[in-house]
Amino acid sequence: MTAKNLYAYTLQPVSYEVSEAEQRNAQLTIWRSTNKIGIKAWAIMGIVVLLSILGIVLIKNYSTIFCWVALACVAIYLLVRKYGLEWYVKRKMNEMPAQEIKGIRLGVQPTGIVMRQKVGLQEGVGSVGWKDMYEWYDTPEFLLVNFKLKGQQGAYILPKRMDSKNFAFSTIRKHLKESVGEAKNI
């Protein structure tokens, strides 16, 4: 062990503040990861395009209109799936209120992630154990950790700017790999 990482856990909780823009970015990134066109859809579109091109080449006169319509439908489907749905999702996200997260401090402990929040004159303390976390994403901008605690689902959006000696992402990744497995791809 080097002097730099003698103690990989939090001695003093760090401030956890996530802006509305960071929350929206995380939501949109996760949505984009789920909005993939499947293999079956690509296969169907490929067959339709192939048959339409064969129809245009082999069939003469007005009968080719059906083939042109099929090609147009495939193009429209791809455009709607790529740009239309994202526009709709962004619009719906802007309708939903997102409150900036402030006044919370987080720490990393061998048992999980500890959260401290001042409520009036008292300080509330909560903990999410590593065993309560069921999936996580590692992106260039943030770590997203989903958990289920006492029947309630929740998530931590951990911006990469929080990575410090008091809140080591390497320790978080180590525990998540041990308890959950590898990060999901986005």
Automatic annotation (TrEMBL):
<feature type="transmembrane region" description="Helical">
    <location>
        <begin position="41"/>
        <end position="59"/>
    </location>
</feature>
<protein>
    <recommendedName>
        <fullName>YcxB-like protein domain-containing protein</fullName>
    </recommendedName>
</protein>
<keyword id="KW-0472">Membrane</keyword>
<keyword id="KW-0812">Transmembrane</keyword>
<feature type="transmembrane region" description="Helical">
    <location>
        <begin position="65"/>
        <end position="84"/>
    </location>
</feature>
<keyword id="KW-1133">Transmembrane helix</keyword>
